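Long-time lurker, finally posting.

We've been working with F-box domain-containing protein (Setaria viridis) and I want a structural starting point before designing mutants. I don't trust myself to interpret raw outputs, so I'm hoping someone here can both generate the C-alpha coordinates and explain anything notable. Sequence follows.
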Amino acid sequence: MELSPAPVPAGRWADLPEDIAVAVASRLQEADVCALGGCSRSWRTACDADCVWERLFRCRWPAAAAEAAVASRVQGWKALYMNQHRRMAVAISDVVEFVGSSLNNGSLESEYYLKAIADLALIADIGFLDVQFFLFSRNHSAIINLIGLHYSISSLHVPPTEVSKALQACQVAGRKVCVNLLKLGRWFYGFRLRDEHESRKISLNELTMSEGAEVLAILNRGAVHEVFRLRVSLADMDE
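Top reply, 14 upvotes:
Generated this for you. Predicted structure of F-box domain-containing protein:
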Protein backbone atom coordinates (compact mmCIF):
# COMPACT_ATOMS: atom_id res chain seq x y z
CA MET A 1 0.00 0.00 0.00
CA GLU A 2 1.44 3.34 -1.09
CA LEU A 3 1.58 6.13 1.42
CA SER A 4 0.23 9.51 0.41
CA PRO A 5 2.74 12.36 0.58
CA ALA A 6 2.50 14.52 3.63
CA PRO A 7 0.45 17.68 2.97
CA VAL A 8 2.38 20.94 2.66
CA PRO A 9 1.52 23.29 5.52
CA ALA A 10 -0.85 25.94 4.21
CA GLY A 11 1.01 28.84 5.75
CA ARG A 12 4.51 27.94 4.60
CA TRP A 13 4.80 30.52 1.78
CA ALA A 14 3.12 33.21 3.85
CA ASP A 15 5.55 32.55 6.68
CA LEU A 16 8.69 33.18 4.64
CA PRO A 17 11.08 35.68 6.23
CA GLU A 18 10.46 39.15 4.81
CA ASP A 19 13.92 39.47 3.27
CA ILE A 20 13.47 36.21 1.35
CA ALA A 21 10.00 37.22 0.18
CA VAL A 22 11.37 40.54 -1.06
CA ALA A 23 14.21 38.72 -2.84
CA VAL A 24 11.64 36.54 -4.63
CA ALA A 25 9.55 39.56 -5.66
CA SER A 26 12.67 41.35 -6.88
CA ARG A 27 13.17 38.70 -9.56
CA LEU A 28 9.72 39.10 -11.10
CA GLN A 29 8.26 41.30 -13.82
CA GLU A 30 5.56 43.92 -13.25
CA ALA A 31 2.50 41.74 -13.87
CA ASP A 32 3.86 38.92 -11.71
CA VAL A 33 4.70 41.30 -8.85
CA CYS A 34 1.14 42.67 -8.89
CA ALA A 35 -0.36 39.16 -9.03
CA LEU A 36 1.83 37.87 -6.20
CA GLY A 37 1.00 40.90 -4.08
CA GLY A 38 -2.65 39.90 -4.15
CA CYS A 39 -2.02 36.47 -2.62
CA SER A 40 -1.76 37.53 1.02
CA ARG A 41 -1.01 40.43 3.30
CA SER A 42 2.60 39.35 3.81
CA TRP A 43 3.19 39.03 0.05
CA ARG A 44 1.59 42.43 -0.49
CA THR A 45 4.09 43.93 1.94
CA ALA A 46 7.00 42.23 0.16
CA CYS A 47 5.77 43.24 -3.31
CA ASP A 48 5.30 46.86 -2.25
CA ALA A 49 8.94 47.11 -1.12
CA ASP A 50 10.76 50.14 -2.50
CA CYS A 51 13.67 48.08 -3.84
CA VAL A 52 11.29 45.95 -5.94
CA TRP A 53 9.80 48.94 -7.74
CA GLU A 54 13.11 50.77 -7.98
CA ARG A 55 14.52 47.84 -9.99
CA LEU A 56 11.46 47.77 -12.24
CA PHE A 57 11.63 51.52 -12.80
CA ARG A 58 15.35 51.52 -13.59
CA CYS A 59 14.98 48.60 -16.00
CA ARG A 60 12.09 50.19 -17.88
CA TRP A 61 13.14 53.86 -17.86
CA PRO A 62 16.90 54.01 -17.18
CA ALA A 63 17.25 57.57 -18.50
CA ALA A 64 14.65 58.86 -16.04
CA ALA A 65 15.96 56.97 -13.03
CA ALA A 66 18.38 59.65 -11.81
CA GLU A 67 15.69 62.31 -11.57
CA ALA A 68 13.23 59.84 -10.11
CA ALA A 69 15.67 58.88 -7.35
CA VAL A 70 15.27 62.34 -5.82
CA ALA A 71 11.48 62.22 -5.98
CA SER A 72 11.42 58.68 -4.56
CA ARG A 73 12.39 59.99 -1.13
CA VAL A 74 8.97 61.61 -0.92
CA GLN A 75 6.69 59.49 -3.13
CA GLY A 76 8.30 56.06 -3.08
CA TRP A 77 9.31 54.03 -6.13
CA LYS A 78 5.99 52.25 -6.59
CA ALA A 79 4.06 55.53 -6.83
CA LEU A 80 6.66 56.89 -9.25
CA TYR A 81 6.41 53.77 -11.38
CA MET A 82 2.62 53.92 -11.54
CA ASN A 83 2.62 57.64 -12.38
CA GLN A 84 5.19 57.13 -15.15
CA HIS A 85 3.22 54.18 -16.51
CA ARG A 86 0.06 56.29 -16.67
CA ARG A 87 1.93 59.14 -18.36
CA MET A 88 3.23 56.76 -21.02
CA ALA A 89 -0.26 55.30 -21.51
CA VAL A 90 -1.75 58.75 -22.15
CA ALA A 91 1.06 59.90 -24.46
CA ILE A 92 1.06 56.73 -26.57
CA SER A 93 -2.75 56.61 -26.69
CA ASP A 94 -2.64 60.04 -28.35
CA VAL A 95 -0.52 58.55 -31.15
CA VAL A 96 -2.88 55.56 -31.44
CA GLU A 97 -5.90 57.86 -31.67
CA PHE A 98 -4.17 59.95 -34.34
CA VAL A 99 -3.55 56.86 -36.44
CA GLY A 100 -7.14 55.73 -35.98
CA SER A 101 -8.49 59.10 -37.11
CA SER A 102 -6.16 59.09 -40.14
CA LEU A 103 -7.21 55.69 -41.48
CA ASN A 104 -9.17 55.68 -44.72
CA ASN A 105 -10.96 52.39 -45.36
CA GLY A 106 -8.31 50.54 -43.37
CA SER A 107 -5.41 52.25 -45.14
CA LEU A 108 -2.88 54.77 -43.88
CA GLU A 109 -1.08 57.25 -46.12
CA SER A 110 2.68 57.53 -45.84
CA GLU A 111 2.69 61.02 -44.33
CA TYR A 112 0.48 59.93 -41.42
CA TYR A 113 2.45 56.74 -40.88
CA LEU A 114 5.73 58.64 -40.64
CA LYS A 115 4.16 61.31 -38.42
CA ALA A 116 3.12 58.60 -35.95
CA ILE A 117 6.74 57.35 -35.85
CA ALA A 118 7.98 60.92 -35.30
CA ASP A 119 5.40 61.58 -32.57
CA LEU A 120 6.55 58.49 -30.67
CA ALA A 121 10.11 59.83 -30.77
CA LEU A 122 8.92 63.02 -29.04
CA ILE A 123 7.71 61.09 -25.98
CA ALA A 124 10.37 61.49 -23.30
CA ASP A 125 11.85 58.27 -21.89
CA ILE A 126 9.74 55.92 -24.02
CA GLY A 127 11.34 52.47 -24.13
CA PHE A 128 10.84 49.03 -25.64
CA LEU A 129 8.71 47.82 -22.72
CA ASP A 130 6.34 50.72 -23.33
CA VAL A 131 6.03 49.64 -26.95
CA GLN A 132 5.23 46.10 -25.85
CA PHE A 133 2.67 47.26 -23.29
CA PHE A 134 0.82 49.76 -25.46
CA LEU A 135 1.52 49.05 -29.17
CA PHE A 136 1.93 45.28 -29.45
CA SER A 137 -1.52 44.65 -28.02
CA ARG A 138 -3.93 42.40 -29.91
CA ASN A 139 -6.60 44.99 -29.16
CA HIS A 140 -4.93 47.26 -31.73
CA SER A 141 -4.77 46.79 -35.49
CA ALA A 142 -1.76 45.32 -37.28
CA ILE A 143 -0.86 48.84 -38.45
CA ILE A 144 -0.42 49.97 -34.83
CA ASN A 145 1.64 46.83 -34.16
CA LEU A 146 3.73 47.66 -37.24
CA ILE A 147 4.37 51.21 -36.06
CA GLY A 148 5.62 49.84 -32.73
CA LEU A 149 7.83 47.32 -34.54
CA HIS A 150 9.24 49.94 -36.89
CA TYR A 151 9.91 52.42 -34.09
CA SER A 152 11.64 49.78 -31.96
CA ILE A 153 14.06 48.80 -34.72
CA SER A 154 14.72 52.18 -36.33
CA SER A 155 14.62 54.55 -33.34
CA LEU A 156 15.21 52.46 -30.21
CA HIS A 157 17.71 50.24 -32.08
CA VAL A 158 16.31 47.07 -30.54
CA PRO A 159 17.77 43.99 -32.29
CA PRO A 160 15.19 42.49 -34.68
CA THR A 161 15.52 39.12 -32.94
CA GLU A 162 14.37 40.70 -29.67
CA VAL A 163 11.48 42.44 -31.43
CA SER A 164 10.48 39.06 -32.92
CA LYS A 165 10.43 37.47 -29.47
CA ALA A 166 8.24 40.27 -28.13
CA LEU A 167 5.81 39.96 -31.06
CA GLN A 168 5.48 36.25 -30.42
CA ALA A 169 4.99 36.78 -26.67
CA CYS A 170 2.22 39.30 -27.43
CA GLN A 171 0.69 36.88 -29.98
CA VAL A 172 0.78 39.31 -32.91
CA ALA A 173 3.76 37.92 -34.86
CA GLY A 174 1.56 36.27 -37.49
CA ARG A 175 -0.46 39.38 -38.28
CA LYS A 176 0.00 40.72 -41.81
CA VAL A 177 0.06 44.14 -43.42
CA CYS A 178 -0.14 45.01 -47.07
CA VAL A 179 2.21 47.72 -48.37
CA ASN A 180 0.84 49.21 -51.58
CA LEU A 181 3.37 51.16 -53.61
CA LEU A 182 2.70 53.67 -56.34
CA LYS A 183 5.97 54.52 -58.07
CA LEU A 184 5.46 57.68 -60.08
CA GLY A 185 6.58 57.39 -63.68
CA ARG A 186 9.76 59.30 -64.37
CA TRP A 187 10.25 61.73 -67.22
CA PHE A 188 12.19 60.44 -70.23
CA TYR A 189 13.00 62.77 -73.15
CA GLY A 190 9.95 64.90 -72.50
CA PHE A 191 7.61 61.96 -71.96
CA ARG A 192 6.36 60.72 -68.61
CA LEU A 193 6.57 56.96 -68.27
CA ARG A 194 3.70 54.96 -66.84
CA ASP A 195 3.27 54.73 -63.07
CA GLU A 196 4.20 51.42 -61.50
CA HIS A 197 1.98 49.72 -58.91
CA GLU A 198 3.24 47.10 -56.52
CA SER A 199 1.67 45.36 -53.53
CA ARG A 200 3.51 43.40 -50.85
CA LYS A 201 1.82 41.41 -48.12
CA ILE A 202 4.10 40.44 -45.26
CA SER A 203 3.74 39.30 -41.66
CA LEU A 204 5.05 41.32 -38.75
CA ASN A 205 7.46 38.54 -37.86
CA GLU A 206 8.85 38.48 -41.41
CA LEU A 207 9.57 42.19 -41.07
CA THR A 208 12.10 41.35 -38.35
CA MET A 209 13.96 39.03 -40.74
CA SER A 210 16.20 39.70 -43.74
CA GLU A 211 13.29 39.62 -46.20
CA GLY A 212 11.60 42.44 -44.30
CA ALA A 213 14.56 44.83 -44.40
CA GLU A 214 13.66 46.12 -47.87
CA VAL A 215 10.06 46.79 -46.84
CA LEU A 216 11.18 48.68 -43.73
CA ALA A 217 13.56 50.70 -45.90
CA ILE A 218 10.64 51.67 -48.13
CA LEU A 219 8.60 52.66 -45.08
CA ASN A 220 11.51 54.79 -43.86
CA ARG A 221 11.70 56.65 -47.18
CA GLY A 222 8.01 57.31 -47.25
CA ALA A 223 6.83 59.53 -50.09
CA VAL A 224 10.28 60.82 -51.00
CA HIS A 225 10.72 58.14 -53.66
CA GLU A 226 7.39 56.34 -53.54
CA VAL A 227 3.88 57.20 -52.53
CA PHE A 228 2.76 54.26 -50.43
CA ARG A 229 -0.26 53.19 -48.49
CA LEU A 230 -0.60 50.61 -45.72
CA ARG A 231 -3.58 48.32 -45.50
CA VAL A 232 -4.49 45.65 -42.96
CA SER A 233 -4.86 42.39 -44.88
CA LEU A 234 -7.88 40.10 -44.72
CA ALA A 235 -5.69 37.44 -43.11
CA ASP A 236 -5.13 39.79 -40.20
CA MET A 237 -8.84 40.43 -39.82
CA ASP A 238 -9.49 36.70 -39.57
CA GLU A 239 -7.02 36.11 -36.70
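Before you design anything, note these points.
The longest helix spans residues 77-102.
The CA atoms of residues 105 and 124 lie 32 Å apart.
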